[in-house]
Q: What sequence folds into this?
């Protein structure tokens, strides 16, 4: 059997007579010691990247020891089993009501929301609510419901393309440009019509971390309603920014203070500061979630709404979210996010001061920023080469093209999360400077074979 089809087992880990090779793609015939199975899996992932040096992902990679203890004590809790774990269900309810208050819902205790397995599921639920409300209104008016569309920036995260594909909604992408670097309300009337179920505004664009100006988008939709009578709602994809803006930009009007904002989602496992596997979606008022999307689940002699697409799912991360709310409070969250933003601004200022680069944005929204090579600076190397040099030092700093209309522009991006402090940031800057100096000394072009966009979700 070829080497790529087996996993070699070090004999020192196995008992006498135990197999020293295990097929990769078939279940073994017999048993092995738990220590042996543990060591095989442990060694398989040993060469994965160091999570603390992964500056590509928005997903949290660190929690404190008490959170880790709580996590191990609640691995077995199934979020959907509210009859068996009623107090976990109560805590879930508290969490989304806390978020509703954080996002300035008119009456946080009487709106509706749910936890999900990340923001992607939350986006699906919010999109479904937009589509279903539009369908109900169209049917009530005796109009067809077969051509719904959703308006969004060309820089949306791929989940929105998936939503449109899975649920038969036509995406209408508003292209970003040098002049309009986010969806900002410009020319929005050209994309909205009677079949538009809503507009997605992003609080923290995946490509760059920049906020889309939700209030300006709402004002543009207000003008469209005055001119045409079309009343188009907004969903705010706050996967990252909805857990940053309330603490760092509290005066920014992006949330339920704007009546046109019907729903907001966020990732608990991003700037919510929880381990992977948690998202949230909340509606401004309960009536904005159609009743026919809600399933009633009985527990504690009463009923609770069940909204999620997934049925059995972990309850542990919900408990971790509540732990963080209790542990940090508003002041603690502000301190953590401000620390990350300070690091991001320091990195951005330092990289922007280098001769080879110019900033696309500076990390003053969420603690994320992007830069590009100055036009005409060099033909010998590009940002993919810099990304490769940094990977040699363990840093994952992705380079990738911007979306349509800017596809000829390549940027590089750093996501600063809790765990990347100033000391590590200085080490990173030293490595960026060293890698850039190496590339600048090239006497000819770097080979281009194999250059590919890095991970940027």
A:
């Amino acid at each position: 059997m070829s080497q790529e089809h087996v996993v070699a087992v070090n004999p020192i880990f196995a008992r006498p007579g135990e197999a020293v090779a295990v097929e990769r793609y078939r279940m073994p015939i017999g048993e092995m010691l738990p220590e042996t199975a543990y060591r095989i899996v442990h060694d398989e992932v040993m060469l994965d990247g160091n999570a603390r040096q992964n500056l590509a992902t928005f997903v949290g990679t660190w929690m404190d020891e008490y959170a880790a203890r709580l996590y191990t004590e609640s691995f077995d809790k199934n979020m959907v089993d509210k009859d068996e774990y009623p107090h976990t269900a109560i805590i879930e309810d508290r969490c989304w009501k806390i978020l509703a208050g954080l996002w300035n819902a008119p009456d946080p205790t009487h709106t509706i929301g749910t936890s999900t397995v990340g923001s992607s599921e939350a986006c699906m639920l919010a999109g479904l609510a937009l589509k279903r409300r539009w369908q109900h209104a169209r049917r009530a008016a005796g109009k067809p419901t077969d051509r719904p569309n959703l308006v969004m920036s060309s820089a949306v995260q791929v989940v929105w393309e998936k939503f449109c594909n899975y649920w038969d909604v036509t995406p209408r992408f508003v292209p970003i440009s040098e002049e309009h670097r986010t969806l900002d309300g410009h020319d929005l009337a050209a994309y909205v019509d009677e079949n538009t179920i809503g507009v997605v505004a992003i609080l923290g664009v995946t490509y760059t971390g920049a906020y889309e100006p939700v209030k300006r988008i709402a004002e543009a939709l207000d003008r469209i309603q005055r001119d045409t009578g079309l009343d188009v709602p907004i969903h705010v994809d706050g996967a990252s920014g909805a857990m940053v803006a309330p603490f760092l930009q509290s005066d920014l009007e992006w949330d339920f203070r704007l009546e046109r904002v019907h729903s907001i989602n966020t990732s608990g496992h991003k700037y919510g500061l929880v381990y992977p596997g948690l998202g949230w979606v909340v509606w401004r008022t309960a009536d904005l979630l159609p009743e026919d999307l809600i399933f009633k689940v009985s527990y504690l002699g009463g009923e609770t709404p069940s909204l999620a697409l997934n049925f059995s799912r972990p309850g542990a991360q919900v408990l971790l979210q509540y732990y963080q709310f209790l542990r940090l409070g508003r002041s603690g969250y502000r301190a953590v996010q401000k620390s990350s933003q300070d690091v991001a601004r320091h990195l951005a200022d330092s990289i922007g001061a280098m001769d080879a680069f110019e900033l696309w944005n500076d990390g003053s929204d969420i603690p994320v920023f992007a830069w590009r090579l100055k036009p005409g600076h060099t033909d010998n190397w590009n940002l993919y080469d810099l990304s490769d040099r940094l990977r040699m030092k363990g840093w994952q700093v992705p380079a990738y093209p911007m979306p349509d209309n800017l596809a000829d522009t390549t940027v590089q991006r750093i996501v600063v999360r809790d765990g990347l402090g100033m000391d590590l940031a200085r080490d990173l800057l030293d490595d960026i400077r060293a890698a850039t100096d190496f590339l600048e000394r090239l006497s000819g072009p770097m080979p281009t074979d194999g250059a590919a966009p890095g991970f940027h979700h």
